[in-house]
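User: My advisor, Dr. K., asked me to get a structural model of this assembly before our group meeting. I'm new to this, so sorry if the format is off. These are the inputs:
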Amino acid sequence: MNLPRRVKMVEVGPRDGLQNEVSVIPPAVKIDFIDRLSATGLTAIEAASFVAPQAVPQMADGAAVLAGIKRRPGVVYSALVPNRRGLEAAMVAGVEEVALFAAASESFSQHNINCSIDGSFVRFAEVAPLALARGVRLRGYVSCVAGCPYEGAITPEKVAEVTRRLFDLGCYEISLGDTIGVGTPRQIEQLIQLVATQVPLERLAVHFHDTYGQALANILAALQAGIAVVDSSVAGLGGCPYAPGASGNVASEDVLYLLNGLGIDTGVDQDLLIAAGHFICEYLHRPTGSKVARALAGRCVAV
Amino acid sequence: MNLPRRVKMVEVGPRDGLQNEVSVIPPAVKIDFIDRLSATGLTAIEAASFVAPQAVPQMADGAAVLAGIKRRPGVVYSALVPNRRGLEAAMVAGVEEVALFAAASESFSQHNINCSIDGSFVRFAEVAPLALARGVRLRGYVSCVAGCPYEGAITPEKVAEVTRRLFDLGCYEISLGDTIGVGTPRQIEQLIQLVATQVPLERLAVHFHDTYGQALANILAALQAGIAVVDSSVAGLGGCPYAPGASGNVASEDVLYLLNGLGIDTGVDQDLLIAAGHFICEYLHRPTGSKVARALAGRCVAV
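Assistant: The format is fine. Below is the predicted structure of the whole assembly, which you can bring to the meeting.
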Protein backbone atom coordinates (compact mmCIF):
# COMPACT_ATOMS: atom_id res chain seq x y z
CA MET A 1 0.00 0.00 0.00
CA ASN A 2 1.62 3.20 -1.24
CA LEU A 3 0.93 6.05 1.19
CA PRO A 4 2.37 9.46 2.06
CA ARG A 5 4.65 9.54 5.12
CA ARG A 6 3.11 12.71 6.48
CA VAL A 7 -0.34 14.25 6.16
CA LYS A 8 -1.50 17.75 6.99
CA MET A 9 -4.89 17.69 8.69
CA VAL A 10 -6.95 20.82 8.06
CA GLU A 11 -9.49 21.34 10.83
CA VAL A 12 -12.71 22.90 9.53
CA GLY A 13 -14.88 22.43 12.62
CA PRO A 14 -14.95 26.04 13.86
CA ARG A 15 -16.11 27.37 10.47
CA ASP A 16 -17.54 24.78 8.09
CA GLY A 17 -18.68 22.68 11.05
CA LEU A 18 -20.30 25.25 13.32
CA GLN A 19 -21.82 27.11 10.39
CA ASN A 20 -23.98 24.08 9.66
CA GLU A 21 -24.98 23.44 13.26
CA VAL A 22 -28.31 24.82 14.40
CA SER A 23 -26.98 26.73 17.42
CA VAL A 24 -25.31 30.11 17.32
CA ILE A 25 -22.26 30.08 19.59
CA PRO A 26 -20.87 33.06 21.48
CA PRO A 27 -17.38 34.15 20.41
CA ALA A 28 -15.85 33.30 23.80
CA VAL A 29 -16.79 29.65 23.31
CA LYS A 30 -15.44 29.63 19.77
CA ILE A 31 -12.20 31.16 21.00
CA ASP A 32 -11.84 28.54 23.71
CA PHE A 33 -12.65 25.83 21.15
CA ILE A 34 -10.09 27.07 18.62
CA ASP A 35 -7.42 27.38 21.32
CA ARG A 36 -8.07 23.78 22.35
CA LEU A 37 -7.73 22.72 18.73
CA SER A 38 -4.47 24.58 18.22
CA ALA A 39 -3.10 22.86 21.34
CA THR A 40 -3.56 19.43 19.73
CA GLY A 41 -0.76 19.88 17.22
CA LEU A 42 -3.05 20.79 14.32
CA THR A 43 -1.32 23.31 12.05
CA ALA A 44 -4.27 24.48 9.94
CA ILE A 45 -7.56 25.66 11.41
CA GLU A 46 -10.40 27.23 9.48
CA ALA A 47 -11.42 29.71 12.13
CA ALA A 48 -13.96 32.14 10.70
CA SER A 49 -15.90 33.39 7.75
CA PHE A 50 -16.37 36.96 6.53
CA VAL A 51 -19.66 36.65 4.71
CA ALA A 52 -22.77 38.82 5.02
CA PRO A 53 -23.95 38.41 8.64
CA GLN A 54 -27.60 38.41 7.57
CA ALA A 55 -26.84 35.38 5.38
CA VAL A 56 -24.86 33.40 7.95
CA PRO A 57 -25.53 34.73 11.48
CA GLN A 58 -23.47 31.89 13.02
CA MET A 59 -20.34 33.49 11.56
CA ALA A 60 -21.02 37.20 12.22
CA ASP A 61 -18.38 37.32 14.96
CA GLY A 62 -15.35 36.49 12.82
CA ALA A 63 -13.39 39.57 13.84
CA ALA A 64 -14.01 39.01 17.54
CA VAL A 65 -13.00 35.37 17.27
CA LEU A 66 -9.77 36.13 15.42
CA ALA A 67 -8.96 38.92 17.90
CA GLY A 68 -9.52 36.62 20.87
CA ILE A 69 -7.65 33.45 19.98
CA LYS A 70 -4.19 32.73 21.27
CA ARG A 71 -2.15 32.60 18.09
CA ARG A 72 0.12 29.63 18.35
CA PRO A 73 3.30 29.75 16.25
CA GLY A 74 3.19 27.28 13.37
CA VAL A 75 -0.60 27.27 13.22
CA VAL A 76 -2.35 28.91 10.26
CA TYR A 77 -5.79 30.33 11.04
CA SER A 78 -7.83 30.85 7.91
CA ALA A 79 -11.12 32.51 7.06
CA LEU A 80 -13.58 32.10 4.24
CA VAL A 81 -14.16 35.23 2.17
CA PRO A 82 -16.72 35.50 -0.64
CA ASN A 83 -15.68 38.87 -2.08
CA ARG A 84 -13.54 42.01 -1.70
CA ARG A 85 -15.50 43.30 1.24
CA GLY A 86 -14.99 39.99 3.07
CA LEU A 87 -11.30 40.01 2.25
CA GLU A 88 -10.85 43.51 3.63
CA ALA A 89 -12.59 42.57 6.88
CA ALA A 90 -10.50 39.40 7.10
CA MET A 91 -7.26 41.34 6.57
CA VAL A 92 -8.22 43.87 9.24
CA ALA A 93 -8.76 40.89 11.55
CA GLY A 94 -5.23 39.73 10.72
CA VAL A 95 -5.78 36.44 8.88
CA GLU A 96 -2.80 34.91 7.12
CA GLU A 97 -4.91 32.80 4.79
CA VAL A 98 -8.27 33.19 3.10
CA ALA A 99 -10.38 30.56 1.44
CA LEU A 100 -12.24 31.01 -1.83
CA PHE A 101 -15.25 28.79 -2.33
CA ALA A 102 -16.12 27.66 -5.86
CA ALA A 103 -18.46 24.93 -7.06
CA ALA A 104 -18.08 22.36 -9.82
CA SER A 105 -21.85 22.50 -10.28
CA GLU A 106 -23.69 25.47 -11.84
CA SER A 107 -26.88 24.79 -9.86
CA PHE A 108 -25.02 24.46 -6.58
CA SER A 109 -23.14 27.70 -7.28
CA GLN A 110 -26.47 29.46 -7.89
CA HIS A 111 -28.13 28.00 -4.79
CA ASN A 112 -25.16 28.35 -2.48
CA ILE A 113 -23.49 31.61 -3.44
CA ASN A 114 -26.17 33.07 -5.67
CA CYS A 115 -24.11 33.41 -8.82
CA SER A 116 -22.82 31.32 -11.70
CA ILE A 117 -19.41 29.65 -11.59
CA ASP A 118 -18.09 32.33 -13.96
CA GLY A 119 -19.67 34.99 -11.76
CA SER A 120 -17.87 33.64 -8.70
CA PHE A 121 -14.56 33.83 -10.57
CA VAL A 122 -15.20 37.48 -11.41
CA ARG A 123 -15.29 38.12 -7.63
CA PHE A 124 -12.28 35.89 -6.98
CA ALA A 125 -10.29 37.72 -9.68
CA GLU A 126 -10.78 40.88 -7.67
CA VAL A 127 -9.94 39.25 -4.33
CA ALA A 128 -6.95 37.15 -5.28
CA PRO A 129 -4.39 39.81 -6.32
CA LEU A 130 -5.31 41.99 -3.35
CA ALA A 131 -4.74 39.13 -0.94
CA LEU A 132 -1.52 37.98 -2.56
CA ALA A 133 -0.18 41.54 -2.66
CA ARG A 134 -0.63 41.70 1.11
CA GLY A 135 1.06 38.34 1.68
CA VAL A 136 -2.20 36.58 2.51
CA ARG A 137 -2.25 33.00 1.22
CA LEU A 138 -5.16 31.74 -0.85
CA ARG A 139 -6.78 28.36 -0.41
CA GLY A 140 -9.41 27.20 -2.86
CA TYR A 141 -12.39 24.94 -2.35
CA VAL A 142 -14.27 23.13 -5.06
CA SER A 143 -17.62 21.77 -3.93
CA CYS A 144 -19.76 18.99 -5.44
CA VAL A 145 -16.77 17.16 -6.88
CA ALA A 146 -18.52 13.77 -6.72
CA GLY A 147 -22.09 14.88 -7.31
CA CYS A 148 -24.52 17.74 -6.77
CA PRO A 149 -27.69 17.75 -4.68
CA TYR A 150 -29.50 19.62 -7.47
CA GLU A 151 -28.17 18.25 -10.73
CA GLY A 152 -26.73 14.83 -9.81
CA ALA A 153 -23.61 13.72 -11.67
CA ILE A 154 -20.74 16.16 -12.15
CA THR A 155 -18.04 15.35 -14.67
CA PRO A 156 -14.43 15.04 -13.45
CA GLU A 157 -13.50 17.34 -16.35
CA LYS A 158 -15.61 20.12 -14.83
CA VAL A 159 -13.95 19.57 -11.45
CA ALA A 160 -10.52 19.71 -13.07
CA GLU A 161 -11.42 22.91 -14.90
CA VAL A 162 -12.63 24.73 -11.78
CA THR A 163 -9.63 23.47 -9.80
CA ARG A 164 -7.31 24.73 -12.49
CA ARG A 165 -8.96 28.17 -12.46
CA LEU A 166 -8.43 28.43 -8.69
CA PHE A 167 -4.81 27.35 -9.13
CA ASP A 168 -4.29 29.93 -11.86
CA LEU A 169 -5.63 32.61 -9.51
CA GLY A 170 -2.81 31.82 -7.12
CA CYS A 171 -4.31 29.32 -4.67
CA TYR A 172 -1.43 27.41 -3.06
CA GLU A 173 -3.80 24.55 -2.19
CA ILE A 174 -7.18 23.49 -3.53
CA SER A 175 -9.50 21.24 -1.57
CA LEU A 176 -11.79 18.92 -3.50
CA GLY A 177 -15.07 18.67 -1.61
CA ASP A 178 -17.59 15.85 -1.86
CA THR A 179 -20.24 18.14 -0.42
CA ILE A 180 -22.98 15.52 -0.24
CA GLY A 181 -20.81 12.51 0.50
CA VAL A 182 -21.95 10.42 -2.46
CA GLY A 183 -18.53 9.52 -3.84
CA THR A 184 -16.88 6.11 -3.65
CA PRO A 185 -13.18 5.21 -3.72
CA ARG A 186 -12.60 4.31 -7.35
CA GLN A 187 -14.44 7.44 -8.45
CA ILE A 188 -12.28 9.51 -6.10
CA GLU A 189 -9.09 7.86 -7.34
CA GLN A 190 -10.01 8.56 -10.97
CA LEU A 191 -11.05 12.11 -10.15
CA ILE A 192 -7.75 12.86 -8.46
CA GLN A 193 -5.81 11.34 -11.35
CA LEU A 194 -7.67 13.57 -13.79
CA VAL A 195 -7.39 16.75 -11.71
CA ALA A 196 -3.68 16.07 -11.23
CA THR A 197 -3.22 16.45 -15.00
CA GLN A 198 -4.21 20.12 -14.53
CA VAL A 199 -2.82 21.02 -11.09
CA PRO A 200 0.20 19.49 -9.31
CA LEU A 201 -0.90 16.67 -7.01
CA GLU A 202 0.90 18.22 -4.03
CA ARG A 203 -1.39 21.26 -4.34
CA LEU A 204 -4.55 19.19 -3.82
CA ALA A 205 -6.45 18.42 -0.64
CA VAL A 206 -9.61 16.37 -0.06
CA HIS A 207 -12.70 17.32 1.90
CA PHE A 208 -15.09 14.43 2.37
CA HIS A 209 -18.51 14.18 3.96
CA ASP A 210 -19.59 10.96 5.60
CA THR A 211 -23.25 11.16 4.59
CA TYR A 212 -23.12 7.72 2.98
CA GLY A 213 -20.43 6.37 5.33
CA GLN A 214 -17.79 6.43 2.58
CA ALA A 215 -15.51 9.19 3.85
CA LEU A 216 -12.69 7.14 5.37
CA ALA A 217 -12.65 4.70 2.44
CA ASN A 218 -12.47 7.71 0.12
CA ILE A 219 -9.65 9.21 2.18
CA LEU A 220 -7.77 5.91 1.93
CA ALA A 221 -8.22 5.99 -1.85
CA ALA A 222 -7.05 9.62 -1.95
CA LEU A 223 -3.95 8.83 0.12
CA GLN A 224 -3.15 5.95 -2.22
CA ALA A 225 -3.55 8.39 -5.12
CA GLY A 226 -0.92 10.63 -3.54
CA ILE A 227 -2.98 13.18 -1.60
CA ALA A 228 -1.34 14.40 1.63
CA VAL A 229 -3.77 17.07 2.87
CA VAL A 230 -7.09 16.08 4.42
CA ASP A 231 -9.87 18.33 5.70
CA SER A 232 -12.02 17.16 8.59
CA SER A 233 -14.20 18.46 11.40
CA VAL A 234 -13.75 17.49 15.03
CA ALA A 235 -16.71 15.50 16.39
CA GLY A 236 -18.08 15.51 12.84
CA LEU A 237 -19.45 19.03 13.42
CA GLY A 238 -21.70 20.24 10.63
CA GLY A 239 -24.59 18.03 9.63
CA CYS A 240 -25.74 17.52 6.08
CA PRO A 241 -28.18 20.30 5.11
CA TYR A 242 -29.42 18.17 2.18
CA ALA A 243 -30.39 15.12 4.27
CA PRO A 244 -31.65 16.14 7.72
CA GLY A 245 -30.31 13.86 10.46
CA ALA A 246 -27.53 12.55 8.26
CA SER A 247 -23.81 13.05 8.78
CA GLY A 248 -21.86 15.86 7.20
CA ASN A 249 -18.14 16.41 7.60
CA VAL A 250 -16.01 13.40 8.39
CA ALA A 251 -14.88 13.46 12.05
CA SER A 252 -11.26 14.50 12.62
CA GLU A 253 -10.84 11.92 15.39
CA ASP A 254 -11.75 9.10 12.98
CA VAL A 255 -9.41 10.47 10.30
CA LEU A 256 -6.59 10.72 12.84
CA TYR A 257 -7.20 7.14 14.01
CA LEU A 258 -6.98 6.00 10.39
CA LEU A 259 -3.77 7.96 9.75
CA ASN A 260 -2.18 6.77 12.99
CA GLY A 261 -3.07 3.19 12.09
CA LEU A 262 -1.49 3.64 8.67
CA GLY A 263 1.69 4.88 10.31
CA ILE A 264 1.30 8.32 8.77
CA ASP A 265 2.67 11.22 10.78
CA THR A 266 0.31 14.15 11.50
CA GLY A 267 1.73 15.73 14.65
CA VAL A 268 -1.76 15.70 16.19
CA ASP A 269 -2.43 14.31 19.68
CA GLN A 270 -5.40 11.96 19.72
CA ASP A 271 -6.44 12.49 23.32
CA LEU A 272 -6.32 16.28 23.05
CA LEU A 273 -8.31 16.16 19.81
CA ILE A 274 -10.98 13.98 21.39
CA ALA A 275 -11.11 16.33 24.37
CA ALA A 276 -11.62 19.35 22.09
CA GLY A 277 -14.48 17.49 20.44
CA HIS A 278 -16.05 16.68 23.81
CA PHE A 279 -15.77 20.31 24.83
CA ILE A 280 -17.77 21.61 21.88
CA CYS A 281 -20.30 18.75 21.91
CA GLU A 282 -21.01 19.41 25.55
CA TYR A 283 -21.61 23.05 24.76
CA LEU A 284 -23.88 22.17 21.83
CA HIS A 285 -25.69 19.41 23.78
CA ARG A 286 -25.08 17.20 20.79
CA PRO A 287 -23.66 13.68 20.67
CA THR A 288 -20.30 13.41 18.98
CA GLY A 289 -20.28 12.33 15.36
CA SER A 290 -16.94 10.61 15.88
CA LYS A 291 -17.03 6.83 16.27
CA VAL A 292 -13.55 6.87 17.78
CA ALA A 293 -14.64 9.40 20.39
CA ARG A 294 -17.67 7.25 21.22
CA ALA A 295 -15.62 4.05 21.44
CA LEU A 296 -13.04 5.63 23.70
CA ALA A 297 -15.52 7.67 25.78
CA GLY A 298 -14.37 7.79 29.36
CA ARG A 299 -10.82 6.84 28.42
CA CYS A 300 -9.59 10.12 26.97
CA VAL A 301 -7.80 12.63 29.16
CA ALA A 302 -9.46 15.82 30.32
CA VAL A 303 -7.78 19.12 29.50
CA MET B 1 -7.25 0.03 -8.15
CA ASN B 2 -7.27 -3.76 -8.37
CA LEU B 3 -10.61 -5.14 -7.21
CA PRO B 4 -12.65 -8.33 -7.54
CA ARG B 5 -15.41 -8.23 -10.16
CA ARG B 6 -17.93 -9.95 -7.93
CA VAL B 7 -18.35 -10.07 -4.14
CA LYS B 8 -20.49 -12.40 -2.06
CA MET B 9 -22.16 -10.49 0.77
CA VAL B 10 -22.83 -12.63 3.83
CA GLU B 11 -25.70 -11.20 5.88
CA VAL B 12 -25.21 -11.78 9.59
CA GLY B 13 -27.98 -9.51 10.92
CA PRO B 14 -30.48 -12.20 11.95
CA ARG B 15 -27.90 -14.04 14.08
CA ASP B 16 -24.77 -12.06 14.94
CA GLY B 17 -26.76 -8.83 14.78
CA LEU B 18 -29.90 -9.69 16.75
CA GLN B 19 -27.92 -11.71 19.30
CA ASN B 20 -26.20 -8.52 20.41
CA GLU B 21 -29.34 -6.39 20.48
CA VAL B 22 -31.03 -5.96 23.84
CA SER B 23 -34.49 -7.09 22.71
CA VAL B 24 -35.62 -10.67 22.31
CA ILE B 25 -37.58 -11.01 19.08
CA PRO B 26 -40.41 -13.48 18.46
CA PRO B 27 -39.70 -16.09 15.77
CA ALA B 28 -42.47 -14.79 13.47
CA VAL B 29 -40.68 -11.43 13.22
CA LYS B 30 -37.33 -13.11 12.58
CA ILE B 31 -38.93 -15.25 9.87
CA ASP B 32 -40.42 -12.19 8.18
CA PHE B 33 -37.06 -10.42 8.49
CA ILE B 34 -35.09 -13.30 6.97
CA ASP B 35 -37.61 -13.65 4.13
CA ARG B 36 -37.23 -9.95 3.36
CA LEU B 37 -33.46 -10.38 3.32
CA SER B 38 -33.56 -13.39 1.00
CA ALA B 39 -35.76 -11.38 -1.38
CA THR B 40 -32.99 -8.77 -1.81
CA GLY B 41 -30.72 -11.05 -3.82
CA LEU B 42 -28.47 -11.97 -0.89
CA THR B 43 -27.25 -15.57 -1.26
CA ALA B 44 -25.86 -16.17 2.24
CA ILE B 45 -27.80 -15.46 5.42
CA GLU B 46 -26.71 -16.41 8.91
CA ALA B 47 -30.14 -17.26 10.22
CA ALA B 48 -29.83 -18.91 13.62
CA SER B 49 -27.64 -20.25 16.36
CA PHE B 50 -27.89 -23.56 18.20
CA VAL B 51 -26.21 -22.68 21.46
CA ALA B 52 -27.44 -23.28 25.01
CA PRO B 53 -30.68 -21.27 25.32
CA GLN B 54 -29.84 -20.25 28.90
CA ALA B 55 -26.63 -18.66 27.58
CA VAL B 56 -28.18 -16.83 24.63
CA PRO B 57 -31.97 -16.54 25.07
CA GLN B 58 -32.25 -14.33 21.94
CA MET B 59 -31.39 -17.37 19.85
CA ALA B 60 -33.42 -20.11 21.58
CA ASP B 61 -35.90 -20.27 18.71
CA GLY B 62 -33.47 -21.42 15.99
CA ALA B 63 -35.52 -24.48 15.03
CA ALA B 64 -38.76 -22.52 14.77
CA VAL B 65 -37.09 -19.83 12.67
CA LEU B 66 -35.55 -22.32 10.25
CA ALA B 67 -38.86 -24.19 9.98
CA GLY B 68 -40.75 -21.00 9.24
CA ILE B 69 -38.67 -19.26 6.59
CA LYS B 70 -39.47 -19.51 2.92
CA ARG B 71 -36.38 -21.23 1.54
CA ARG B 72 -35.43 -19.44 -1.59
CA PRO B 73 -33.40 -21.44 -4.14
CA GLY B 74 -29.82 -20.24 -4.35
CA VAL B 75 -29.79 -18.85 -0.80
CA VAL B 76 -27.76 -20.60 1.88
CA TYR B 77 -29.15 -20.28 5.40
CA SER B 78 -26.52 -21.03 8.01
CA ALA B 79 -26.48 -21.51 11.76
CA LEU B 80 -23.82 -21.20 14.40
CA VAL B 81 -23.10 -24.39 16.35
CA PRO B 82 -20.70 -24.59 19.29
CA ASN B 83 -20.62 -28.39 19.70
CA ARG B 84 -22.05 -31.77 18.69
CA ARG B 85 -25.36 -31.16 20.41
CA GLY B 86 -25.77 -27.88 18.54
CA LEU B 87 -24.88 -29.54 15.28
CA GLU B 88 -27.47 -32.26 15.77
CA ALA B 89 -30.18 -29.71 16.51
CA ALA B 90 -29.11 -27.69 13.46
CA MET B 91 -29.24 -30.75 11.22
CA VAL B 92 -32.69 -31.68 12.47
CA ALA B 93 -33.71 -28.12 11.57
CA GLY B 94 -32.37 -28.71 8.06
CA VAL B 95 -29.44 -26.30 7.81
CA GLU B 96 -27.12 -26.68 4.84
CA GLU B 97 -24.25 -24.85 6.48
CA VAL B 98 -22.97 -24.51 10.03
CA ALA B 99 -20.52 -21.99 11.41
CA LEU B 100 -17.73 -22.78 13.85
CA PHE B 101 -16.56 -19.92 16.00
CA ALA B 102 -12.89 -19.79 17.03
CA ALA B 103 -10.85 -16.96 18.51
CA ALA B 104 -7.32 -15.82 17.77
CA SER B 105 -7.07 -14.67 21.40
CA GLU B 106 -6.82 -17.06 24.36
CA SER B 107 -8.52 -14.64 26.74
CA PHE B 108 -11.36 -13.94 24.33
CA SER B 109 -11.87 -17.67 23.80
CA GLN B 110 -12.10 -18.15 27.57
CA HIS B 111 -14.47 -15.22 28.08
CA ASN B 112 -16.63 -15.86 25.04
CA ILE B 113 -16.92 -19.62 24.76
CA ASN B 114 -15.51 -20.64 28.10
CA CYS B 115 -12.63 -22.76 26.87
CA SER B 116 -9.13 -22.42 25.48
CA ILE B 117 -8.47 -22.20 21.75
CA ASP B 118 -7.25 -25.81 21.82
CA GLY B 119 -10.34 -26.80 23.80
CA SER B 120 -12.58 -25.26 21.13
CA PHE B 121 -10.81 -27.29 18.46
CA VAL B 122 -11.43 -30.49 20.42
CA ARG B 123 -15.16 -29.74 20.06
CA PHE B 124 -14.80 -28.71 16.41
CA ALA B 125 -12.94 -31.95 15.66
CA GLU B 126 -16.00 -33.82 16.81
CA VAL B 127 -18.46 -31.61 14.92
CA ALA B 128 -16.66 -31.23 11.60
CA PRO B 129 -16.60 -34.84 10.31
CA LEU B 130 -20.22 -35.39 11.36
CA ALA B 131 -21.34 -32.31 9.46
CA LEU B 132 -19.28 -33.08 6.38
CA ALA B 133 -20.48 -36.70 6.34
CA ARG B 134 -24.05 -35.39 6.14
CA GLY B 135 -23.23 -32.93 3.38
CA VAL B 136 -23.47 -29.90 5.64
CA ARG B 137 -20.93 -27.21 4.72
CA LEU B 138 -18.65 -25.75 7.37
CA ARG B 139 -17.85 -22.07 7.66
CA GLY B 140 -15.24 -20.90 10.14
CA TYR B 141 -14.97 -17.67 12.07
CA VAL B 142 -11.86 -16.30 13.67
CA SER B 143 -12.52 -13.49 16.12
CA CYS B 144 -10.16 -10.80 17.43
CA VAL B 145 -8.01 -10.81 14.30
CA ALA B 146 -6.95 -7.17 14.76
CA GLY B 147 -6.94 -6.99 18.55
CA CYS B 148 -8.63 -8.38 21.65
CA PRO B 149 -10.69 -6.47 24.24
CA TYR B 150 -8.88 -8.36 27.04
CA GLU B 151 -5.29 -8.78 25.90
CA GLY B 152 -4.81 -6.05 23.27
CA ALA B 153 -2.55 -6.89 20.34
CA ILE B 154 -2.93 -10.24 18.57
CA THR B 155 -0.17 -11.39 16.23
CA PRO B 156 -1.05 -12.06 12.59
CA GLU B 157 0.81 -15.37 12.99
CA LYS B 158 -1.72 -16.48 15.60
CA VAL B 159 -4.59 -15.49 13.31
CA ALA B 160 -3.01 -17.44 10.46
CA GLU B 161 -2.55 -20.49 12.69
CA VAL B 162 -6.18 -20.57 13.87
CA THR B 163 -7.42 -19.93 10.33
CA ARG B 164 -5.31 -22.82 9.07
CA ARG B 165 -6.71 -25.13 11.73
CA LEU B 166 -10.27 -24.30 10.66
CA PHE B 167 -9.32 -24.85 7.04
CA ASP B 168 -7.75 -28.21 7.89
CA LEU B 169 -10.98 -29.24 9.61
CA GLY B 170 -12.78 -28.79 6.31
CA CYS B 171 -14.18 -25.24 6.45
CA TYR B 172 -14.81 -24.14 2.87
CA GLU B 173 -14.64 -20.49 3.94
CA ILE B 174 -13.14 -18.75 6.96
CA SER B 175 -14.19 -15.29 8.02
CA LEU B 176 -11.62 -13.06 9.71
CA GLY B 177 -13.38 -10.97 12.33
CA ASP B 178 -12.20 -7.67 13.76
CA THR B 179 -14.49 -8.17 16.73
CA ILE B 180 -13.77 -4.83 18.36
CA GLY B 181 -13.23 -2.78 15.20
CA VAL B 182 -9.76 -1.54 16.08
CA GLY B 183 -8.01 -2.52 12.84
CA THR B 184 -6.85 -0.12 10.15
CA PRO B 185 -6.30 -0.75 6.44
CA ARG B 186 -2.56 -1.42 6.24
CA GLN B 187 -2.80 -3.81 9.18
CA ILE B 188 -5.68 -5.62 7.45
CA GLU B 189 -3.78 -5.81 4.17
CA GLN B 190 -0.73 -7.28 5.88
CA LEU B 191 -2.86 -9.69 7.90
CA ILE B 192 -4.59 -11.01 4.79
CA GLN B 193 -1.26 -11.38 3.01
CA LEU B 194 0.08 -13.45 5.89
CA VAL B 195 -3.04 -15.60 6.33
CA ALA B 196 -3.06 -16.24 2.59
CA THR B 197 0.28 -18.02 2.94
CA GLN B 198 -1.57 -20.65 5.01
CA VAL B 199 -5.03 -20.78 3.42
CA PRO B 200 -6.00 -20.01 -0.19
CA LEU B 201 -7.10 -16.39 -0.54
CA GLU B 202 -10.38 -17.40 -2.19
CA ARG B 203 -11.31 -19.27 1.00
CA LEU B 204 -11.14 -16.12 3.14
CA ALA B 205 -13.87 -13.67 4.11
CA VAL B 206 -13.76 -10.53 6.23
CA HIS B 207 -16.04 -9.52 9.06
CA PHE B 208 -15.48 -5.97 10.24
CA HIS B 209 -16.98 -3.93 13.03
CA ASP B 210 -17.34 -0.19 12.66
CA THR B 211 -16.62 0.67 16.29
CA TYR B 212 -13.82 3.05 15.30
CA GLY B 213 -15.38 4.00 11.95
CA GLN B 214 -12.76 2.04 10.02
CA ALA B 215 -14.89 -0.79 8.61
CA LEU B 216 -15.41 0.44 5.04
CA ALA B 217 -11.79 1.54 4.70
CA ASN B 218 -10.76 -1.91 5.93
CA ILE B 219 -13.13 -3.57 3.47
CA LEU B 220 -11.58 -1.51 0.68
CA ALA B 221 -8.12 -2.68 1.77
CA ALA B 222 -9.36 -6.28 1.93
CA LEU B 223 -10.85 -6.08 -1.57
CA GLN B 224 -7.58 -4.67 -2.86
CA ALA B 225 -5.82 -7.60 -1.18
CA GLY B 226 -8.03 -10.00 -3.13
CA ILE B 227 -10.88 -10.78 -0.71
CA ALA B 228 -14.24 -11.35 -2.39
CA VAL B 229 -16.50 -12.34 0.54
CA VAL B 230 -17.69 -9.70 3.01
CA ASP B 231 -19.84 -10.19 6.11
CA SER B 232 -22.15 -7.40 7.21
CA SER B 233 -25.32 -6.76 9.17
CA VAL B 234 -28.29 -4.87 7.79
CA ALA B 235 -28.92 -1.57 9.63
CA GLY B 236 -25.68 -2.27 11.52
CA LEU B 237 -27.61 -4.59 13.88
CA GLY B 238 -25.56 -5.74 16.84
CA GLY B 239 -23.92 -3.09 18.96
CA CYS B 240 -20.49 -3.39 20.46
CA PRO B 241 -20.72 -5.19 23.82
CA TYR B 242 -17.26 -3.88 24.78
CA ALA B 243 -18.06 -0.18 24.29
CA PRO B 244 -21.70 0.57 25.19
CA GLY B 245 -23.31 2.96 22.73
CA ALA B 246 -20.68 2.31 20.09
CA SER B 247 -21.23 0.65 16.72
CA GLY B 248 -20.74 -3.05 16.12
CA ASN B 249 -21.19 -4.78 12.78
CA VAL B 250 -20.71 -2.70 9.68
CA ALA B 251 -24.06 -1.95 8.01
CA SER B 252 -24.85 -4.02 4.91
CA GLU B 253 -26.42 -1.03 3.17
CA ASP B 254 -23.17 0.94 3.50
CA VAL B 255 -21.11 -2.02 2.26
CA LEU B 256 -23.43 -2.45 -0.71
CA TYR B 257 -23.20 1.27 -1.55
CA LEU B 258 -19.40 0.97 -1.52
CA LEU B 259 -19.43 -2.15 -3.71
CA ASN B 260 -21.92 -0.63 -6.15
CA GLY B 261 -19.78 2.49 -6.36
CA LEU B 262 -16.72 0.36 -7.07
CA GLY B 263 -18.59 -1.35 -9.91
CA ILE B 264 -18.48 -4.70 -8.11
CA ASP B 265 -21.38 -7.05 -8.77
CA THR B 266 -23.24 -8.45 -5.73
CA GLY B 267 -26.70 -9.28 -7.06
CA VAL B 268 -28.24 -7.43 -4.11
CA ASP B 269 -30.96 -4.81 -4.56
CA GLN B 270 -30.23 -1.64 -2.61
CA ASP B 271 -33.81 -0.50 -2.09
CA LEU B 272 -34.99 -3.90 -0.88
CA LEU B 273 -32.02 -4.15 1.47
CA ILE B 274 -32.75 -0.72 2.95
CA ALA B 275 -36.40 -1.71 3.33
CA ALA B 276 -35.45 -4.89 5.20
CA GLY B 277 -33.33 -2.77 7.54
CA HIS B 278 -36.20 -0.34 8.12
CA PHE B 279 -38.51 -3.24 8.90
CA ILE B 280 -36.35 -4.61 11.70
CA CYS B 281 -35.39 -1.18 13.08
CA GLU B 282 -39.03 -0.25 13.32
CA TYR B 283 -39.71 -3.44 15.24
CA LEU B 284 -36.74 -2.81 17.56
CA HIS B 285 -37.58 0.90 17.98
CA ARG B 286 -33.96 1.58 17.19
CA PRO B 287 -32.47 4.05 14.72
CA THR B 288 -30.67 2.45 11.81
CA GLY B 289 -26.90 2.15 12.05
CA SER B 290 -26.62 2.57 8.29
CA LYS B 291 -25.56 6.00 7.05
CA VAL B 292 -26.83 5.16 3.58
CA ALA B 293 -30.26 4.27 4.98
CA ARG B 294 -30.31 7.52 6.93
CA ALA B 295 -29.23 9.60 3.93
CA LEU B 296 -31.83 8.03 1.68
CA ALA B 297 -34.62 7.90 4.29
CA GLY B 298 -37.91 8.57 2.65
CA ARG B 299 -36.57 7.76 -0.78
CA CYS B 300 -36.43 3.97 -0.59
CA VAL B 301 -39.35 1.86 -1.74
CA ALA B 302 -41.65 0.11 0.69
CA VAL B 303 -42.08 -3.65 0.34
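One thing worth pointing out at the meeting: DSSP finds twelve helices and eight strands in chain B.

User: Perfect, thanks a lot.
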